[in-house]
Amino acid sequence: MPKSRIRKKADYTPPPATKQAASIKLTNRSWVAPVMLAMFAIGLVWIVVFYVTDGTLPLKAINNWNIVVGFGFIAAGFGVSTQWK
């Protein structure tokens, strides 16, 4: 049985570079870390103050919703953390 010919593949040549690589613009996001940490701290302090004062502070009128407000600040801190690069 005859052997088939071995075909040599052409070497890969990249297409000519018509465009230059786009430079990536990184914006200054130095505000993210302080705001994120501040939101975490405010939320934690809000909840701790609520428990330590037996619900009379920070806002007595909203009763146990103070816990939701504290966790809201913490959730906002996590939301801000998504902007960190």
Percentage of residues assigned to helices: 40-55%
Going by helix content, strand content and strand pairing, the class is: mainly alpha
- Please summarize the sheet with the most strands: none
Q: Kindly estimate the percentage of residues that lie in beta strands according to DSSP.
A: under 5%
**What is the average of the pLDDT values?**
87
- Stretches where pLDDT is under 50 for at least 5 consecutive residues are none
The whole-angstrom Rg is: 30 Å
Describe the fold and architecture:
The chain has 85 residues and is an all-alpha fold. Helix 1 runs antiparallel to helix 2. The chain has two helices and no strands. The radius of gyration is 30 Å and the shape is elongated.
Which characteristics define this entry?
mainly alpha; 0% strand; 85 residues
Brief write-up:
With 85 residues, this protein is mainly α. The protein has helices at 32-52, 65-81.
